[in-house]
Amino acid sequence: MAYGDAAIAEAARLIAAGRPVAVPTETVYGLAADAYDGAAVARVYQAKGRPSFNPLIVHVGDIAQASEIALFDDESRALAEAHWPGPLTLVLPLRPGARIAALVTAGLATIAVRAPAHPAMRDLLAAAGTPLAAPSANASGRISPTRAEHVLASLGGRIPLIVDAGPTGHGLESSIVALTGGRPRLLRPGPIDLGLVLSERGGDVEAPGQLARHYAPAKPLRLDAAEARDGEWLIGFGAVAGDATLSASGDLVEAAAGLFERLHEAERGPCPTIAVAPVPEVGLGAAINDRLRRAAA
To answer: Which domains does the chain have, with CATH numbers?
Structure first.
């Protein structure tokens, strides 16, 4: 649907209904969903066929909106004032009490935020009235899309709307800089050059596109458990009830949306170990199981 008032209004309506939509930024086309709605974010992963739940970049209108979900210090605020709106993503401490869906941050205590410059994404942010989580609008493993036709070729039939505003300006994903204590660290090079050397990857994922271990609970985790053993907190799925459940009805979107909340709940619980019921290795189930295997490793 060609970019204009009607397209933005329809995109905002779909966002409010929990449906992801494709919209251009100045870097690449993004697949946007309400960052407060865990089920909506799960549908982003479902559409992309993403193999694991990496943290997603949250797009905001300005520093004020970013400050509702992230903690800024003087240095990070100065960077945002200098380069926003624009292709710079900042990884910052997650603000305590922020309503961001845990699936967006992959259970981490940090959040990746940026204020995009493209008028289509900025118009959608204003119309939707909510921060938007938006990875690139392509099937996982495919080339990032810089035109609406690229999105259609990759995700056609999987999403309800593509806002077509022509080719993107940069065609290269945003620069990502972490400001989580100490000196700024470059996690992903991009259009904004701050003169930083690419940081060596440690044990934890901090931003999209990093191939490392994700959040894992501090307790041992056993997978494919049909019932709890002594001393285990069982996270159920479908017919396996457990102490808590990913989804009593076996809904994979619901399971993905609640995955990190259930892991945190189990970690806080009274049992010394955690068990998780089997989740089918289909659709979103493959991503859920990938995340669980990483957590149990």
So the answer is: 5-188 (3.90.870.10), 221-296 (no CATH)
